[in-house]
Amino acid sequence: MSPFAKLVILILLAEFSQYADAYMRGAPPEACTDMEPQHGPAPQTSPAPYTITPQQNAIEQGGTVKVTIQGKSPKGGFMGFLFMAVNPEDSPSKPLGRFINSPYPARSVDCLPGEQNALTHRDAKSKNNLELTWQAPPDYQGEIEFRCTFLRDFSTFWLRVPASTLVRVGNPVVARAAETSSGVSLVPMVTVFDYFVWRIWFWTSEAQSQP
Protein backbone atom coordinates (compact mmCIF):
# COMPACT_ATOMS: atom_id res chain seq x y z
CA MET A 1 0.00 0.00 0.00
CA SER A 2 1.35 3.38 -0.99
CA PRO A 3 2.08 6.07 1.62
CA PHE A 4 -0.66 8.25 0.09
CA ALA A 5 -3.30 5.51 0.46
CA LYS A 6 -2.26 4.97 4.09
CA LEU A 7 -2.61 8.70 4.75
CA VAL A 8 -6.12 8.77 3.25
CA ILE A 9 -7.17 5.80 5.39
CA LEU A 10 -5.81 7.45 8.54
CA ILE A 11 -7.69 10.65 7.77
CA LEU A 12 -10.93 8.73 7.18
CA LEU A 13 -10.48 6.75 10.37
CA ALA A 14 -9.87 9.93 12.34
CA GLU A 15 -13.00 11.53 10.92
CA PHE A 16 -15.08 8.45 11.66
CA SER A 17 -13.68 8.26 15.17
CA GLN A 18 -14.76 11.84 15.84
CA TYR A 19 -18.29 11.11 14.61
CA ALA A 20 -18.46 7.84 16.55
CA ASP A 21 -17.20 9.47 19.73
CA ALA A 22 -19.76 12.27 19.44
CA TYR A 23 -22.49 9.71 18.78
CA MET A 24 -21.59 7.74 21.91
CA ARG A 25 -21.50 10.85 24.11
CA GLY A 26 -24.79 12.28 22.83
CA ALA A 27 -25.92 15.22 20.76
CA PRO A 28 -23.82 18.42 20.74
CA PRO A 29 -25.30 21.88 21.43
CA GLU A 30 -25.20 22.51 17.67
CA ALA A 31 -28.12 20.07 17.34
CA CYS A 32 -30.43 22.25 19.44
CA THR A 33 -31.78 24.21 16.47
CA ASP A 34 -33.07 21.41 14.24
CA MET A 35 -32.61 18.35 16.52
CA GLU A 36 -30.65 16.58 13.81
CA PRO A 37 -27.88 14.19 14.95
CA GLN A 38 -25.24 15.92 12.78
CA HIS A 39 -24.24 12.65 11.10
CA GLY A 40 -25.61 9.92 8.88
CA PRO A 41 -28.08 10.06 5.98
CA ALA A 42 -31.57 11.59 5.84
CA PRO A 43 -34.08 10.78 8.62
CA GLN A 44 -36.59 7.96 8.32
CA THR A 45 -40.03 8.81 6.91
CA SER A 46 -41.86 5.78 8.29
CA PRO A 47 -43.83 6.03 11.58
CA ALA A 48 -41.44 6.06 14.51
CA PRO A 49 -41.35 2.82 16.55
CA TYR A 50 -41.18 4.92 19.74
CA THR A 51 -43.62 6.81 21.94
CA ILE A 52 -43.47 9.92 24.15
CA THR A 53 -46.09 9.93 26.91
CA PRO A 54 -46.57 12.77 29.43
CA GLN A 55 -48.11 11.58 32.72
CA GLN A 56 -50.17 14.79 33.04
CA ASN A 57 -51.84 17.04 30.50
CA ALA A 58 -51.86 20.19 32.67
CA ILE A 59 -49.46 21.65 35.23
CA GLU A 60 -48.91 24.97 37.00
CA GLN A 61 -46.31 27.55 36.02
CA GLY A 62 -43.01 26.33 37.43
CA GLY A 63 -44.52 22.88 38.01
CA THR A 64 -43.09 19.54 36.92
CA VAL A 65 -44.32 16.69 34.76
CA LYS A 66 -42.87 13.23 34.21
CA VAL A 67 -42.55 12.02 30.63
CA THR A 68 -41.82 8.48 29.46
CA ILE A 69 -39.98 7.75 26.21
CA GLN A 70 -39.92 4.13 25.10
CA GLY A 71 -39.95 1.67 22.25
CA LYS A 72 -43.26 0.31 21.03
CA SER A 73 -41.97 -3.25 21.28
CA PRO A 74 -39.70 -5.03 23.80
CA LYS A 75 -36.97 -5.24 21.16
CA GLY A 76 -37.53 -1.74 19.80
CA GLY A 77 -34.78 -0.02 21.73
CA PHE A 78 -32.96 3.18 20.78
CA MET A 79 -29.27 3.88 21.20
CA GLY A 80 -29.37 7.67 21.10
CA PHE A 81 -31.85 10.48 21.59
CA LEU A 82 -32.28 14.26 21.84
CA PHE A 83 -35.29 15.35 23.87
CA MET A 84 -36.81 18.78 24.56
CA ALA A 85 -40.04 20.71 25.21
CA VAL A 86 -41.15 23.48 22.84
CA ASN A 87 -44.03 25.81 22.13
CA PRO A 88 -45.72 24.05 19.17
CA GLU A 89 -46.64 27.42 17.64
CA ASP A 90 -43.06 28.75 17.55
CA SER A 91 -41.04 28.53 14.36
CA PRO A 92 -38.19 27.93 14.68
CA SER A 93 -38.81 26.09 17.91
CA LYS A 94 -36.75 26.86 21.00
CA PRO A 95 -36.45 24.52 24.00
CA LEU A 96 -38.28 25.73 27.09
CA GLY A 97 -38.02 24.93 30.79
CA ARG A 98 -35.40 22.56 32.13
CA PHE A 99 -34.93 18.93 33.05
CA ILE A 100 -34.25 17.87 36.62
CA ASN A 101 -33.16 14.65 38.35
CA SER A 102 -32.32 13.04 35.02
CA PRO A 103 -31.67 9.30 35.28
CA TYR A 104 -28.65 7.57 33.79
CA PRO A 105 -27.93 7.33 30.87
CA ALA A 106 -29.41 10.77 30.18
CA ARG A 107 -27.40 13.98 30.43
CA SER A 108 -28.44 17.58 30.04
CA VAL A 109 -27.61 19.86 27.12
CA ASP A 110 -27.51 23.64 27.44
CA CYS A 111 -29.32 25.05 24.41
CA LEU A 112 -28.42 28.73 24.63
CA PRO A 113 -29.54 31.02 26.12
CA GLY A 114 -31.10 28.46 28.50
CA GLU A 115 -29.55 25.77 30.69
CA GLN A 116 -30.40 22.09 31.08
CA ASN A 117 -33.27 22.57 28.62
CA ALA A 118 -32.57 19.45 26.53
CA LEU A 119 -31.54 15.88 27.24
CA THR A 120 -29.38 13.45 25.30
CA HIS A 121 -27.66 10.10 25.90
CA ARG A 122 -24.36 9.36 27.65
CA ASP A 123 -23.58 6.11 25.83
CA ALA A 124 -24.57 4.09 22.78
CA LYS A 125 -26.09 1.16 24.67
CA SER A 126 -29.61 0.12 23.78
CA LYS A 127 -32.37 1.81 25.80
CA ASN A 128 -36.03 0.93 25.79
CA ASN A 129 -37.66 2.96 28.55
CA LEU A 130 -36.69 6.23 30.28
CA GLU A 131 -38.74 8.37 32.67
CA LEU A 132 -37.71 12.04 32.50
CA THR A 133 -38.81 15.01 34.61
CA TRP A 134 -39.38 18.42 33.03
CA GLN A 135 -39.95 21.68 34.92
CA ALA A 136 -41.96 24.49 33.32
CA PRO A 137 -40.69 28.08 33.30
CA PRO A 138 -42.20 30.17 36.13
CA ASP A 139 -43.30 32.87 33.67
CA TYR A 140 -44.64 30.71 30.81
CA GLN A 141 -48.30 30.11 30.09
CA GLY A 142 -49.51 28.08 27.14
CA GLU A 143 -49.16 24.66 25.53
CA ILE A 144 -46.01 22.55 25.47
CA GLU A 145 -45.11 19.81 23.01
CA PHE A 146 -42.43 17.29 23.88
CA ARG A 147 -40.29 16.20 20.92
CA CYS A 148 -37.55 13.64 20.59
CA THR A 149 -35.12 12.56 17.89
CA PHE A 150 -34.55 8.81 18.28
CA LEU A 151 -31.47 7.02 16.91
CA ARG A 152 -31.82 3.29 16.44
CA ASP A 153 -28.23 3.12 15.25
CA PHE A 154 -25.57 5.41 13.83
CA SER A 155 -27.37 6.03 10.53
CA THR A 156 -31.03 5.21 11.27
CA PHE A 157 -33.02 7.88 13.09
CA TRP A 158 -36.46 9.50 13.37
CA LEU A 159 -36.50 13.27 13.60
CA ARG A 160 -38.55 15.40 16.03
CA VAL A 161 -41.09 12.73 17.00
CA PRO A 162 -43.97 14.47 18.86
CA ALA A 163 -45.52 13.34 22.14
CA SER A 164 -48.91 11.66 22.24
CA THR A 165 -50.51 14.77 23.77
CA LEU A 166 -49.79 18.41 24.52
CA VAL A 167 -49.30 19.66 28.08
CA ARG A 168 -50.99 22.86 29.21
CA VAL A 169 -48.94 25.15 31.46
CA GLY A 170 -50.82 27.82 33.39
CA ASN A 171 -52.19 29.12 36.68
CA PRO A 172 -54.02 26.58 38.85
CA VAL A 173 -57.78 26.44 38.40
CA VAL A 174 -59.43 27.76 41.56
CA ALA A 175 -63.05 26.80 42.13
CA ARG A 176 -65.39 29.75 42.60
CA ALA A 177 -66.68 29.99 46.15
CA ALA A 178 -70.23 30.54 44.92
CA GLU A 179 -70.36 27.27 43.02
CA THR A 180 -70.51 23.64 44.03
CA SER A 181 -68.69 20.85 42.22
CA SER A 182 -71.85 20.25 40.17
CA GLY A 183 -71.74 23.82 38.90
CA VAL A 184 -74.92 24.89 40.76
CA SER A 185 -74.66 28.33 42.30
CA LEU A 186 -75.08 28.64 46.06
CA VAL A 187 -76.27 32.24 45.86
CA PRO A 188 -79.84 31.46 44.70
CA MET A 189 -80.13 28.81 47.45
CA VAL A 190 -79.15 31.35 50.11
CA THR A 191 -81.55 33.90 48.64
CA VAL A 192 -84.46 31.47 48.68
CA PHE A 193 -83.67 30.45 52.28
CA ASP A 194 -83.57 34.12 53.38
CA TYR A 195 -86.87 34.73 51.61
CA PHE A 196 -88.68 31.98 53.51
CA VAL A 197 -87.19 33.16 56.82
CA TRP A 198 -88.42 36.65 56.08
CA ARG A 199 -91.90 35.38 55.16
CA ILE A 200 -92.21 33.37 58.39
CA TRP A 201 -91.15 36.39 60.43
CA PHE A 202 -93.61 38.61 58.55
CA TRP A 203 -96.56 36.22 59.08
CA THR A 204 -95.72 35.85 62.77
CA SER A 205 -95.46 39.60 63.31
CA GLU A 206 -98.69 40.22 61.41
CA ALA A 207 -100.57 37.61 63.47
CA GLN A 208 -99.33 39.09 66.74
CA SER A 209 -100.39 42.60 65.71
CA GLN A 210 -104.02 41.56 65.05
CA PRO A 211 -106.51 42.04 67.98
UniProtKB/TrEMBL annotation:
Residues 31-52 are annotated as: Disordered. Keywords: Antibiotic, Antimicrobial, Immunity, Signal. Residues 1-22 form the signal peptide. InterPro entries: Ferric-chelate_Red/DefProt (IPR051237), Reeler_dom (IPR002861), Reeler_sf (IPR042307). GO terms for biological process: defense response to bacterium; defense response to protozoan; immune system process. Residues 43-52 have a biased composition (Polar residues). GO terms for cellular component: membrane. Residues 9-182 form the Reelin domain. Belongs to the insect defense protein family. PANTHER family: CYTOCHROME B561/FERRIC REDUCTASE TRANSMEMBRANE (PTHR45828), DOMON DOMAIN-CONTAINING PROTEIN (PTHR45828:SF33). This is Reelin domain-containing protein. It comes from Daphnia pulex. The lineage of its organism: Eukaryota, Metazoa, Ecdysozoa, Arthropoda, Crustacea.
